[in-house]
Structure formats: C-alpha cells, structure tokens
C-alpha cells in the first residue's frame, strides 16, 4: 500500500553550495539521493512531496562539509505480510509466475497457485483452470496475498 | 528488527510509524505522481530520463489499478469522508457536484453512501 509519511535524513553538503540557493541545493540533492531508494523499514520512496523543515547545519570537523537534518514528506510504497494487493503478471513458467505491483517484484510459486489450475507451455505460457474459464498469463491482472517479503525487494506470495 | 516477524497486515499489525502515517488510495497516488511528472516536464525536455524506475513503475501501476479514474470523484469521496454529513441535504450542500457531475447520483444512492460511511465511523 502507498503511504504518505514524514522522514528525516542528515544531508551532507559541500561548502561550495553555500549561498542564497542553499535551500534549493539541499532539496535537489535530497531528491537525487532518496527518490527511488528502498529500505526494509520504509519500503520504496517513490516521490518527495514537500520539505517540512531544514535544521541548523553542523560543521564536520576536518572536512568543511556541513550536515543538515532535513525533515521531508514523501510517498512510499510498503508491502506488508498478509496484505492483499493487485499486480500485473510479468512472466510465467512451470515453477510459478512473477508479477509486479508498482516497484515491487512478486513471485508466486506453483504450490500456492490453486490446485485446479494447470501449467500450459507454449508461446504464451499460462496457468489455466480445467474448464478454461480462468487463465493467468503475461499481462493478466491478479489479486494476491503477500506471505513473505525479502528486503532486496522481492516478495513471495500466494493468490 | 523484532517487529518484522510480527508484522501482519491482515490483523493490522504494521510498524508504529505506519500506523501514524496516512495511507493513500491508489487514485490519490496517481494524482500526486502525475502532478509531479508534469512539473518535471516543464523543467526538462526528457522527463522520463529524469525520474527513477521506481517512480515510473509506480505511476504505471497506480494508473492501471486506480478504481476512480475521475479525479473529481476522488475529491468528492475525500470531502464526504472528512465531513461525515448525516443527511442527504447536508451532503449535497457540501459537495454539490455529487448531484451534477460525473455519475450524478440520485438521493437514494447518496443516502446509501452516507449510511455506509456512518457504519465505518462506528468502528472506532
């Protein structure tokens, strides 16, 4: 699920950026550093929406770099164990299938695919029910439940 | 992290920081990301090169899975959710567009919607 949360980060800035545009420099560096990253605790940082507060800078001994504590709001995508979400199938093989929900990769093992669905190989590998009414193939939309997560951003799940 | 083991969204067991955080509907995320993308478009010629893969994938995902394609509907929903009107007249007074714009709900549909909302309120 997507969340809007407040995060804090210490930004180190080179003295050459000091001047009138200090705030802009800090913000653009923050965006470059943080957007698109992933952590086990907060999930994927998708976009920074606003910067709440930039604290007083602290000069680091010996280097001249200054550390600013920055508080910012951002949109994060964090999958939780037990959460049910929708995803788009990206690849199907006999071990199961891969799906994507936003930035997250999800793998569904064939043990967790309903028993009445059989794997069919061919140009368009897919899982089909015996009566052929439901088919999971590339680009299908599936609804699944997350049963486990791994921090490098891959999930294991079941439909 | 011991919290990691106990986390279970089905029982609303999620980390402290997320319990305090605002959760967003896919359609709201779509509005935010789209807005940001437009801003980028103004500042550079090739915005797709500027944004991270995470951003791009998220934008595609929320576009595909947002149930309320019409941003008006999202705002209506949000206002109604915040203000919790009790009667149909009240709701129409607050959000005149539920009667006129989009699907143009009739009184009965609005009444049902308000009942549903008040049910959620009781769960506190």
Automatic annotation (TrEMBL), chain A:
<dbReference type="InterPro" id="IPR003029">
    <property type="entry name" value="S1_domain"/>
</dbReference>
<dbReference type="GO" id="GO:0003697">
    <property type="term" value="F:single-stranded DNA binding"/>
</dbReference>
<dbReference type="GO" id="GO:0000932">
    <property type="term" value="C:P-body"/>
</dbReference>
<dbReference type="Pfam" id="PF03876">
    <property type="entry name" value="SHS2_Rpb7-N"/>
</dbReference>
<comment type="function">
    <text>DNA-dependent RNA polymerase which catalyzes the transcription of DNA into RNA using the four ribonucleoside triphosphates as substrates.</text>
</comment>
<dbReference type="GO" id="GO:0060213">
    <property type="term" value="P:positive regulation of nuclear-transcribed mRNA poly(A) tail shortening"/>
</dbReference>
<dbReference type="InterPro" id="IPR045113">
    <property type="entry name" value="Rpb7-like"/>
</dbReference>
<dbReference type="Pfam" id="PF00575">
    <property type="entry name" value="S1"/>
</dbReference>
<dbReference type="GO" id="GO:0005665">
    <property type="term" value="C:RNA polymerase II, core complex"/>
</dbReference>
<dbReference type="GO" id="GO:0045948">
    <property type="term" value="P:positive regulation of translational initiation"/>
</dbReference>
<comment type="similarity">
    <text>Belongs to the eukaryotic RPB7/RPC8 RNA polymerase subunit family.</text>
</comment>
<dbReference type="GO" id="GO:0031369">
    <property type="term" value="F:translation initiation factor binding"/>
</dbReference>
<keyword id="KW-0539">Nucleus</keyword>
<dbReference type="GO" id="GO:0006367">
    <property type="term" value="P:transcription initiation at RNA polymerase II promoter"/>
</dbReference>
<dbReference type="InterPro" id="IPR012340">
    <property type="entry name" value="NA-bd_OB-fold"/>
</dbReference>
<feature type="domain" description="S1 motif">
    <location>
        <begin position="79"/>
        <end position="157"/>
    </location>
</feature>
<keyword id="KW-0804">Transcription</keyword>
<keyword id="KW-0240">DNA-directed RNA polymerase</keyword>
<dbReference type="InterPro" id="IPR005576">
    <property type="entry name" value="Rpb7-like_N"/>
</dbReference>
<protein>
    <recommendedName>
        <fullName>DNA-directed RNA polymerase subunit</fullName>
    </recommendedName>
</protein>
<dbReference type="InterPro" id="IPR036898">
    <property type="entry name" value="RNA_pol_Rpb7-like_N_sf"/>
</dbReference>
<dbReference type="GO" id="GO:0003727">
    <property type="term" value="F:single-stranded RNA binding"/>
</dbReference>
UniProtKB/TrEMBL annotation, chain B:
<dbReference type="InterPro" id="IPR010997">
    <property type="entry name" value="HRDC-like_sf"/>
</dbReference>
<comment type="similarity">
    <text>Belongs to the eukaryotic RPB4 RNA polymerase subunit family.</text>
</comment>
<dbReference type="InterPro" id="IPR038324">
    <property type="entry name" value="Rpb4/RPC9_sf"/>
</dbReference>
<dbReference type="GO" id="GO:0000166">
    <property type="term" value="F:nucleotide binding"/>
</dbReference>
<feature type="domain" description="RNA polymerase Rpb4/RPC9 core">
    <location>
        <begin position="16"/>
        <end position="124"/>
    </location>
</feature>
<dbReference type="Pfam" id="PF03874">
    <property type="entry name" value="RNA_pol_Rpb4"/>
</dbReference>
<protein>
    <recommendedName>
        <fullName>RNA polymerase Rpb4/RPC9 core domain-containing protein</fullName>
    </recommendedName>
</protein>
<dbReference type="InterPro" id="IPR045222">
    <property type="entry name" value="Rpb4-like"/>
</dbReference>
<dbReference type="GO" id="GO:0005634">
    <property type="term" value="C:nucleus"/>
</dbReference>
<keyword id="KW-0539">Nucleus</keyword>
<dbReference type="InterPro" id="IPR006590">
    <property type="entry name" value="RNA_pol_Rpb4/RPC9_core"/>
</dbReference>
<dbReference type="InterPro" id="IPR005574">
    <property type="entry name" value="Rpb4/RPC9"/>
</dbReference>
<dbReference type="GO" id="GO:0006352">
    <property type="term" value="P:DNA-templated transcription initiation"/>
</dbReference>
<dbReference type="GO" id="GO:0030880">
    <property type="term" value="C:RNA polymerase complex"/>
</dbReference>
